[in-house]
Structure formats: C-alpha cells, structure tokens
Amino acid sequence: MQQSLYAVQKGESPAKLVFLHGFGGSHRVWRGLQEALAPETSSLAYDLPGHGASLDWPEAGPAKIAVKAVLADLAARGLDRVHLVGHSMGGAIAALMAISEPARIASATLLSPGGFGPEINARLLARFAAARDKESLRACLEGMFGWTSPVPDEAVGAAMEGRRQPGAIAMLRKIAEIIAPGGSQGEIARDRLAALAMPVSVVWGGLDNVLPARQCHNLPPHFARHLLPDRGHMLPDEAPEEVLRVIRRNIAGS
C-alpha cells in the first residue's frame, strides 16, 4: 500500500506553499509557477490521489480522501502552517482543507475552484477523462482554454503522460463520475466558506467553459475576487503572471 503522496519540491527550506492541481492534471501543471517563486518561497506540488505518481492511492476519487491525504502528508513532513494554491478540483480540495483545519492554512488562492456552484460541464469532463490520444486531448483542452489562449504542446503532453499508466483512464472516468454525478457537482456550503478567517483569493476566467464565472459572484465579503475577462478555465497556463501576483499578495497579507 502506498504510504505517501508524490510531490515535487522547489526551494531548499521547508515548504510554505502547496500547489494542488485540477482533474486530470499533475504536479507538472505548476512547474513554471514553482520556478518563479523558488527564490522567495519553497513549495510543494502534489500529484493528488488517483493522478500521476499517486494513481494507486487507496480509495482515491472523493475529495475528502484527497483532503485527508494532503493534510496527513504535510503533517508527516513537519509542515504545520502553509499557503494553498488550488486549481479547479484542487481549488475545492484547498477550500475543504481550510475548512477542516483552518489553523494550518495561512492563505488560500483558489483558481476556478470546484464546489462553488452546481453547474459544471460534465460532458466535457467525461470526454477529457476518456481521451486516449493527443488529438482527442487537444480538442478537450481547446474547450477548457479561453477562446484566444493557445493550447501549449506541453499541456497536451503532460495530460498524455498521465494516462500511460495501466488503470489511469479508468481512474479518471471514476473520478469524473464522482465529481459530477447526474451532470452537476456538489457545493461547498457558503456559511462554511464565510467562516474562513485567513486571506482567501478567488481567480476566475470570464470565458471559463468548465465552471461558469458567475460562480464567483456573491462570495463572502472578505474574499478577494479577481475576474479575468479574456481567460478560460486553465488559469495556471493562461494567466501565470496574474496568478503569481495574487499568490504573492495573499502570502504577504497573511
């Protein structure tokens, strides 16, 4: 049985920043942001349960499993308080971690997070989960990126790499069904989000075709909202400079 989640660390000192990727992603999504922040902040980028090198994590699939796994891994590393950055599914996991153990979370930067409303493009999610070749993956990613944002070859290659392991596509299809049973997603209760006291920033693309940007309306008053009108769902690739600014602001304000 696997005993620890896979994570890539950048920086020599104990990590203060934790990156959590979205559905079908891996630690590779964060490579550019990790490198940009390494001179000032050490970071960990995880492969979440059911993804990448954490594919065989026991009972992988539900968000609550990922929440427990990441919190336990951070504790095992002796990291008592961290800043979180989560994208899409990873954004929902980051929010749930902050709700579960708020004293351990210094700030949360949520990029197009899951769980902020019932609407989700379940059909696109299912196609992405089942895609087996680069052409199919590129077509799915074109639906996830903003209309004018190019789809990097590296993003297609990273998605393809994550599917080469035996059982990877079956796991993605399982997780897609868990995320959007019946075509909608579960919601994180707004009163639980409103109770969070640490700095929380929510970044959303106005052209998001996976989770509609209207889900960032009516956030708790103390949440900082950043709407990027010309960007889609894949903000780590589409808007790295904007994301870096928000991360740095959150860290400085904690």
Structural account:
- This protein has 254 residues and is an alpha/beta fold.
- The chain has a single domain (7-253), classed as Alpha/Beta hydrolase fold, catalytic domain (Rossmann fold).
- It is 38% helix and 14% strand.
- The protein contains 10 helices and 7 strands.
- The chain has helices at 31-37, 63-76, 89-100, 122-130, 134-144, 153-161, 168-179, 190-194, 235-238, 240-253, and strands at 7-10, 17-20, 43-46, 82-87, 105-111, 200-205, 224-228.
- A 7-stranded mixed β-sheet has the order 1-3-2-4-5-6-7, with helices on both faces.
- The longest helix has 14 residues, at 63-76.
- The chain starts with 6 loop residues before the first strand and ends with a helix.
Q: How would you briefly describe this protein structure?
A:
The protein is of the alpha/beta class. The chain has helices spanning 31-37, 63-76, 89-100, 122-130, 134-144, 153-161, 168-179, 190-194, 235-238, 240-253; strands at residues 7-10, 17-20, 43-46, 82-87, 105-111, 200-205, 224-228. The chain has one domain (7-253): Alpha/Beta hydrolase fold, catalytic domain (Rossmann fold, 3-Layer(aba) Sandwich).
Question: What characteristics describe this protein?
Answer:
10 helices, Rossmann fold, alpha/beta, 254 residues, seven-stranded mixed beta sheet, globular, 38% helix
Number of helices: 10
Uncertain segments of ≥5 residues (pLDDT<50)? none
Q: How would a textbook summarize the main sheet?
A: 7 strands, mixed
Please tell me how large the radius of gyration is.
16 Å
The fold-level CATH name is: Rossmann fold
Average pLDDT metric? 95
- What number of structural domains do the residues give? 1
Class by helix and strand content? alpha/beta
CATH homologous superfamily descriptor: Alpha/Beta hydrolase fold, catalytic domain
CATH architecture group name: 3-Layer(aba) Sandwich
As a percent range, the share of helical residues equals: 25-40%
User: How much β-strand is present in the residues?
Assistant: 5-15%
SSE sequence, one letter per element: EEHEHEHEHHHHHEEHH
Morphology: globular
